[in-house]
Write a structure and sequence with these properties.
Structural class of chain B: mainly alpha
Oligomer: heterodimer
Distance between the termini of chain A: 37 Å
Largest interface: A-B, 94 and 92 residues
Number of strands of chain B: 8
Number of strands of chain A: 1
Number of domains of chain A: 1
Number of helices of chain A: 11
Shape of chain B: globular
Number of helices of chain B: 28
Chain lengths: 314, 700
C-alpha cells in the first residue's frame, strides 16, 4: 500500500500549473462580463514569477510566525490537493486522508494565514483575520453537512470512494438532494475562496477586504506563496465540487490517450464552474458583513434538506 | 535496579505523601520547601508514569490486580487499590501531567517567594496529586468517595491560594458548593447501587451490571417481573444521579458555571492540573459507571449524553471566544472539550444499545483518546498562560502582545498547543476528532429511527466547534504573542525559566507523539476496550505497518498524520527550488508596517481581543445579548472626542437565567426555615421527638 509516487508528482505538477490559470480565467471572464478587457488569462503566472524575483519588505513588528505562514498555506493547499481526485477517480494520496483531512489541512493554512495577518500590528490585518475566521467558522457546518450527505451515501469519507460511488449511482444527477447539496457547497465555495457576495478579491478598499487585508503586509516570495496557495485551494475546492456531483470522464486506466482525455474533461468541468463563479460575481453585489451569515445559514439549511431528502423520503 | 510496576506505583504514592509533608514541615524555608515538595512530586509522578506504561503495555492483565493499601478498621471501608486497564489509563494521564506540572512548578513557584507560602502550595499540590491518583485507583465506593472529597478539598484550598483577592474567594466558595452538590449526587448513586449489589466493592458493582443487562434484554417479555422493572428504574435513577454528580466535576453545560470562575484564579500550575486532570475524574467516573457498572444502556442515555456533549461543545467554545482573560478563555475551552469527549461516549452508548459493539468501541476510543489529548494540550496551554502571567503579571490579553519576540520558546509551545486544541492536522486533537467524526458518520446506518439524524447534525456542530476553536486560538495566540506589546509590562517580558520550559516541552512532546503515532497509542487502549466492550480494535484500525489510521473499516476512510507531516516537509523542497531558480538574488528589507501615511503605528491602533471576536458576538447576539455603554466627552465636535469611556458586556445566560433565580429561591427558603430554628431548646426537643416518632412509624 505504498503511496504512488509518480501519481503524487504528476498531481502536484497539475495543481501547481492549473491553479493560476483558473484564477486568471475567472478574472478575465469577469472583466469581459463587465465590458472591460481585463488581464490576460496567463497574467497570474507572470505575477507569480515577478513576485518570486522581487525583494521582500517585512514589517519590523513581525515575528517568525509571519515568515512561517506562507509556507504553511502553500504546503497545506498542495497536500489537500493531493487527496482530491482530479482527472482520475483515484487520488494519489487518498490513503493519507479523506475529506476530513482536507478540511483540516485547509483550516491549518487558514489558521496560519490569519496569524500572519495579525503579526505586523496593522489594524487591517487584524480585521481581515477576524472576519476570515468568523466566515470560515460559519461556513464550516454547511460544508461538513453537505459533505456528510455524500459521505454517508458512499459509506466513506475518502473522496476516491465517494467519487466512485457517485459514478456507480448512474445518471441521477438531477436528484433534488444532490442539487441541494451542490448548491450548499457552491455557496461555501464562494465563501472559502473569497468571492463576491462574501468578499471581493479585486478590492483594495481597506474596509471591505477580508482575504486581501491579511496579505497586505506580504511581498515578494511570501506573497507569491500566499497567492499560489490561495489559487490551489480554490482549485481543490472546485475539484471536489465537480467530481462529486459530475463524476464523468474520470480516468479509468493509465494509457496516455486516457490520461489526456481525462485531463481535458477535467479542465473543461473546472472551467465551466469558473464561468459560473465569474457570472455570480458579476451579477451580485458584495453583501454587508453581517448579511453573510444569512447566506451561509441558507447553505446550512440546503445541506440539511439534502440530508433529509436523501435518507428520509426514499 | 529492577522494580516491579506495583512497587513503582507504591513509590509514586509515597512520593506524593513525602512531598506533601515536606512542604508543610519546611514551609518556613521557601526555597527548600519548593525544591523538596515539587521534587518529590516530580519523582513520584515519574515512577507512576513508568508503572502505568509498563502495566498497560503488558496489556494481558485480564483480571485486575487488587491491593490492600491500609488495614480495614471499619466494615465496608476498605482501602483497596485496583489496577485494571481503565484505572491505569487515567493513572497514566495523572502521572504524565503530574510530571510536567511538577517540573514547571519548580520554576513557577519562585514567583511566590516572599509573597505567599510556597510550602503550603507544594503540600496541597502533592495532596491533590495523591488524592486524584487514588480516585482513579480505588476499588470500592467508600474509598473512592474519601479520595474524591480529599481531592475536592485540596483543590479548593489551591483555588483559594491567593485568597486576598475577593474574586478568588468567591470563585473558591462557588467551586466548593458546586463540588459538594456533585458529591451528594454521586453518594446517592452509589447508595442506590448498594441496594442491589449488597456491597461497595467495584467487583460487586460489575457483577450487578450483568444483572442489569440480563434484566434489560428481558424487558419486553410479557411476564417481566415487577421487581426487575423496579431494578431497571433504580438503574435509570442511578444513571441520572451519576450524570449530574460527575457532570458537575467535568463541567458539562449547564453545570459548568463554577469552572470558568475557579480555574483562572488558581495558580497556573493548579489551573493546568484542574483543567487537564481534575475534570477528567468526572469523565473517569462516567466511563467506570456507564460502561462498567450499569450494564447495557437504554437508548435515551446515549441520546442524553450525546446531546449534552454537543451543547457543551458549542456553548463552551462560543463563550470562550468572548473572553479576553487568557486563563478564563482556556477554562471555557475545557467545557468545549469535555463536550467533545461526551459526544464520543454518547455515540458509544447509543451503539451499545443498538447492538453495534464495533462502532461502540470506536466511539469509546475516540472519547478516551480525546480525554488524554485534552489533558495534554490544555495542560500545555495553561502552562504557557502561566509563563505569560509570570512574566507580565497580567492575564488580560488586551494588555499583552509582542511576546513571540520576547518569549520565543513559550510562544512556540503555546502555538503547538493552539494547533492541537483547534483539531488541526497533524497533531493529536485532529486524530481524536477524526475518530469521533468517523464513529458519528458510520453510526448513521445503525438505526432506522429519526434519532440517526443526531449523528450528522452532531458532526456538523462538531465542525462548527472546531472552526470556532480555531478562530478563538488565532485570537488567543495572535493577540497575546504577536504584533506590538500593548503595555509596558508586556514590552519588558522575559522568557520563562528552564524548568518551566521543560515542563511545557514534556507536554509538547506528548502532543506530537499522540498526533503522529496514533496507531502506537491505540495498542495501549486495547486492554481498556477489551475490559469495557470486549473488543480490541488496534489491529483493525492500523494499516500499512502503523503509518495509516483507519476508521472501523478501511473503506470508510483512512488518515495518516505521520504521512501528512513527512510529505509536508518533503514538499518544502518546492518553495526552496523556486527560491534557487528565481529568488536567489532577492534581499529582505525590514520596514515599518503600512500606516496610511500617519507617523507610525502605535499599539493602540492594533486590533484588540474584543474587536477580534466582535463579528462572532454580533452573529450570535441572541445568545450573548451584548450590551455596551459609550460615554464621550468632546469640546466642539463629537468626532474629536477628548475622552471616551467604553464598556461592553456579554450576558452569561446560565448565570442570569438559572443560577441567580435558584440562588434567590434558596435564600428565600432558608429565611423561611429560620423560623424553625428559634433557639429554644424545648422546641428542638420536640423536633427530635417528632422525628423519632416518624421514623418509628416508618419502620413499622
Amino acid at each position: 500500500m505504498n503511496p504512488d509516487l509518480t501519481g503524487i508528482a504528476l498531481q502536484t505538477v497539475l495543481l501547481l500549473l492549473l491553479a493560476p490559470l483558473i484564477t486568471g480565467c475567472i478574472r478575465n471572464w469577469k472583466s469581459r462580463l463587465q465590458n472591460r478587457r481585463g488581464p490576460r488569462l496567463w497574467q497570474p503566472y507572470f505575477d507569480l514569477v515577478k513576485f518570486l524575483r522581487k525583494d521582500m519588505v517585512i514589517s519590523e513588528h513581525a515575528s517568525w510566525v509571519f515568515a512561517a505562514a506562507p509556507y504553511v498555506v502553500f504546503i497545506t493547499a498542495l497536500l489537500a490537493g493531493l487527496m482530491v481526485p482530479l482527472a482520475s477517480a483515484q487520488a494519489p494520496l487518498s490513503l493519507f486522508g479523506g475529506v476530513l483531512a482536507i478540511v483540516g489541512l485547509l483550516a491549518l493554512g487558514r489558521f496560519f494565514m490569519a496569524l500572519g495577518g495579525l503579526d505586523p500590528a496593522s489594524a487591517f490585518g487584524g480585521m481581515g483575520s477576524s472576519r476570515e475566521m468568523t466566515i470560515a467558522a460559519i461556513a464550516e457546518p454547511a460544508l461538513m453537512l453537505a459533505v456528510f450527505t455524500v459521505a454517508i451515501t458512499a459509506g466513506s469519507t475518502d473522496l476516491s470512494h465517494i467519487v466512485s460511488s457517485a459514478q456507480q449511482s448512474g445518471w441521477d444527477l438531477l436528484n433534488p438532494a444532490r442539487l441541494m447539496a451542490f448548491a450548499a457547497l457552491f455557496i461555501v465555495l464562494l465563501a472559502e475562496t473569497g468571492r463576491v457576495p462574501i468578499d471581493n478579491p479585486a478590492t483594495h478598499l481597506e474596509l471591505t477586504m477580508i482575504h486581501e487585508a491579511m496579505l497586505l503586509e506580504y511581498s515578494g516570495r511570501y506573497l507569491a506563496l500566499m497567492e499560489w496557495g490561495a489559487s490551489i485551494k480554490q482549485l481543490v475546492l472546485m475539484a471536489i465540487l465537480v467530481n462529486i456531483f459530475l463524476p464523468i470522464g474520470l480516468i479509468a486506466d493509465h494509457s496516455v490517450a486516457m490520461i489526456g482525455l481525462g485531463l481535458v474533461v477535467f479542465v473543461i468541468k473546472i472551467l465551466v464552474l469558473s464561468a459560473a463563479v465569474a457570472l455570480v460575481e458579476t451579477v451580485n453585489a458584495k453583501l454587508r458583513l453581517f448579511r453573510v451569515p444569512d447566506l451561509l445559514s441558507a447553505a446550512f439549511v440546503l445541506a440539511t434538506m439534502a440530508l433529509l431528502s436523501t435518507f428520509l423520503f426514499h | 535496579m529492577d522494580l516491579s510496576p506495583i512497587a513503582l506505583l507504591t513509590l509514586a504514592l509515597l512520593g506524593y505523601v513525602i512531598g506533601s509533608l515536606a512542604g508543610l514541615v519546611l514551609c518556613r524555608w521557601e526555597r527548600l520547601a519548593n525544591f523538596l515538595s515539587f521534587g518529590c512530586a516530580t519523582l513520584g509522578a515519574g515512577c507512576g508514569l513508568v508503572a502505568c506504561v509498563e502495566l498497560l503495555a503488558a496489556g494481558g492483565t485480564t483480571a485486575p490486580i487488587q491491593l490492600q493499601l491500609l488495614p480495614t478498621l471499619v466494615p465496608y471501608v476498605q482501602f483497596t487499590v485496583r489496577l485494571d486497564s481503565l484505572s491505569l489509563f487515567f493513572g497514566l494521564i495523572v502521572s504524565l501531567l503530574g510530571l510536567a506540572l511538577s517540573l514547571y512548578s519548580l520554576g513557577y513557584a519562585r514567583g511566590f517567594y516572599g509573597r505567599k507560602n510556597v510550602g503550603v502550595l507544594g503540600a496541597f499540590f502533592n495532596l491533590m496529586l495523591l488524592a486524584t491518583s487514588l480516585v482513579f485507583l480505588s476499588d470500592n465506593a467508600f474509598f473512592f468517595l474519601i479520595a474524591w472529597e480529599i481531592m475536592a478539598l485540596s483543590a479548593y484550598c489551591l483555588v483559594s491560594f491567593e485568597h486576598e483577592k475577593p474574586e478568588t474567594r468567591n470563585a473558591g466558595v462557588f467551586y466548593f458548593v458546586m463540588s459538594h452538590i456533585g458529591t451528594g449526587c454521586i453518594m446517592l448513586g452509589f447508595l442506590l447501587l448498594f441496594k442491589d449489589s449488597g456491597g461497595y466493592g467495584f467487583d460487586g458493582f460489575h457483577a450487578l451490571g450483568e444483572k442489569f443487562s440480563a434484566a434489560f434484554h428481558d424487558r419486553n417479555n410479557p411476564d417481566f417481573p415487577v421487581a426487575l422493572h423496579q431494578l431497571l428504574l433504580r438503574r435509570d435513577a442511578a444513571f441520572l444521579l451519576f450524570l449530574i454528580g460527575f457532570g458537575v466535576k467535568a463541567g458539562i453545560v449547564p453545570l459548568h458555571t463554577w469552572l470558568p470562575q475557579a480555574h483562572p484564579v488558581a495558580p497556573s500550575n493548579v489551573s493546568a492540573f484542574m483543567s487537564g486532570v481534575l475534570i477528567k475524574t468526572g469523565i473517569y467516573g462516567m466511563t467506570r459507571v456507564f460502561f462498567d457498572f450499569l450494564g447495557t444502556p437504554p437508548m435515551w442515555w446515549g441520546v442524553t449524553v450525546l446531546a449534552i456533549g454537543t451543547v457543551s461543545a458549542v456553548l463552551g467554545v462560543l463563550y470562550a471566544l468572548m473572553q479576553h482573560d487568557l486563563k478564563r478563555l482556556l477554562a471555557y475551552h475545557s467545557i468545549e472539550n469535555i463536550g467533545i469527549i461526551l459526544m464520543g461516549f454518547g455515540a458509544s452508548l447509543m451503539f451499545l444499545d443498538t447492538g453495534h459493539p464495533l462502532l461502540a468501541t470506536l466511539a469509546l476510543i475516540a472519547g478516551l483518546y480525546h480525554t488524554i489529548n485534552h489533558a495534554l494540550f490544555k495542560g500545555l496551554l495553561f502552562l504557557g498562560a502561566g509563563a505569560v502571567l509570570h512574566a507580565t503579571h497580567t492575564r488580560d490579553m488586551e494588555h499583552l502582545g509582542g511576546l513571540a519576540k520576547r518569549m520565543p520558546q513559550t510562544a512556540f509551545f503555546f502555538l503547538i498547543g493552539a494547533v492541537a486544541i483547534s483539531a488541526l492536522p497533524p497533531l493529536n486533537g485532529f486524530v481524536s476528532e477524526w475518530l469521533t467524526y468517523q464513529s458519528l458518520l458510520q453510526g448513521f446506518g445503525t438505526t432506522e429511527s429519526l434519532l440517526r439524524l443526531m449523528f450528522p447534525i452532531g458532526g456538523a456542530l462538531l465542525a462548527l466547534t472546531g472552526a470556532l476553536a480555531a478562530a478563538c486560538f488565532v485570537k488567543a495566540f495572535g493577540i497575546t504573542f504577536l504584533a506590538q506589546p500593548r503595555s509596558e509590562a508586556a514590552a519588558k517580558a522575559h522568557e520563562a525559566s528552564f524548568t518551566m520550559l521543560l515542563g511545557q516541552a514534556v507536554l509538547v512532546a506528548a502532543c506530537v507523539f499522540l498526533g503522529l503515532f496514533p496507531t502506537v497509542f491505540l495498542k495501549i487502549l486495547d486492554p481498556l476496550t477489551q475490559q469495557l466492550t470486549g473488543l480490541q480494535l488496534s489491529q483493525q484500525l492500523t494499516l500499512a505497518n502503523g503509518l495509516v489510521l483507519a476508521g472501523a473499516n478501511p473503506a470508510g476512510g483512512t488518515v495518516s498524520t505521520l504521512g501528512i507531516a513527512l510529505l509536508g516537509i518533503a514538499l518544502l523542497a518546492l518553495p526552496f527550488a523556486l527560491w534557487l531558480a528565481l529568488g536567489r538574488r532577492t534581499k529582505t528589507h525590514i520596514g515599518p508596517t503600512w500606516d496610511c501615511g500617519l507617523k507610525g503605528l502605535t499599539p493602540r491602533m492594533e486590533y484588540t481581543a474584543t474587536g477580534f471576536s466582535k463579528p462572532i458576538r454580533m452573529i450570535f447576539k441572541a445568545l450573548f445579548r451584548p450590551r455596551r455603554e459609550v460615554q464621550r466627552e468632546y469640546d466642539f465636535s463629537p468626532y474629536f472626542a477628548t475622552n471616551i469611556r467604553f464598556e461592553a458586556h456579554v450576558e452569561e445566560v446560565f448565570e442570569t437565567k438559572i443560577y441567580r433565580p435558584l440562588n434567590r429561591w434558596v435564600l428565600w427558603l432558608s429565611r423561611r426555615m429560620r423560623a424553625l430554628q428559634a433557639g429554644s431548646i424545648q422546641a428542638y426537643l420536640i423536633y427530635i421527638f417528632i422525628t423519632l416518632l416518624l421514623l418509628l412509624l416508618f419502620a413499622l
